[in-house]
Design brief:
Blueprint lengths: L6 E5 L4 H12 L3 E6 L2 H13 L4 E5 L5 H15 L4 E4 L14 H29 L2 E6 L12 H21 L4 E8 L23 H12 L9 E4 L7
């Protein structure tokens, strides 16, 4: 299936996996609303989308803030008329053992990783239900399936996201809306490295473009096919 002329909203689109997905969608023919907290980053990504021959709108937004999310989808609807694809990619990981994890860090992860997904989804659904068509891609993590020391706070948000996505899928499939949950493991971005404390593979690992390819490939499946969950991990993490 082609994604030509589909309207996509991608959160956390200023860098890493979000940026890669935004560009991959544009390469497949979609127009893209890129959202993140840093205006200069999303302006740059929007410029790259336009160089690919597609329309772009850069909207500064903190997905944990209700007013920001409402404004994001209002601007998307004003500019493009609707939204066909939502990629809930915005997320943060703050890693420490439970005894040392700051309450404000624990709260912030829940605000972005789960409240943000909830708010964006709730604002996208009326548009998708009305047109009886839509796709919601939630970027979870293998941390939502596998525990590791220092990952209790972050992993809990991703466990929750997987559960949220499974229930959401059952609620909205009757409207021809697909919910696709991607669970990357180690990815070659700045997110999981020694600066964050997240575990990272020592071998050859997927890059942001690899995750983006999985995202657009699942979105390109025929409408009667829904790939609901995908685990993505290195073939040989110790290679």
């Amino acid at each position: 299936m082609t994604l030509t002329d589909k309207i996509a909203v991608v959160t956390g689109a200023g860098r890493g996996i979000g940026k890669a997905i935004a560009l991959a969608l544009a390469e497949r023919g979609a127009d893209v609303v890129v959202a993140a907290r840093t205006q200069s980053e999303i302006d740059a990504v929007a410029g790259e989308v336009r160089k690919l021959g597609r329309k772009a709108l850069a909207v500064k937004a903190d997905v944990s803030e209700k007013a920001d999310v409402q404004r994001l989808f209002a601007r998307a609807a004003d500019e493009f008329g609707t939204v066909h694809i939502l990629v809930n990619n915005a997320g943060i990981g703050l890693f420490a053992q439970v005894a040392d994890l700051k309450v404000e860090d624990f709260d912030r992860m829940w605000q972005v990783n789960m409240r943000g997904v909830f708010l964006c989804t709730q604002n996208a659904l009326p548009l998708m239900v009305k047109q009886k068509n839509g796709d919601i891609v939630n970027i979870a993590s293998l941390a939502g399936r596998n525990a590791f020391v220092g990952g209790a706070g972050y992993g809990a948000t991703k466990w929750a996201l997987i559960g949220f996505s499974r229930s959401l899928m059952l609620e909205v499939r009757k409207h021809n809306i697909r919910v696709i949950t991607l669970c990357p493991g180690s990815v070659d971005t700045s997110f999981g490295d020694h600066t964050t404390g997240a575990p990272k593979s020592s071998g050859e690992i997927p890059g942001a473009q690899d995750i983006a390819r999985v995202a657009v490939d699942t979105l390109s499946m025929p409408r009667h096919v829904m790939v609901s969950e995908v685990d993505i991990r290195p073939t040989n993490p110790t290679g």
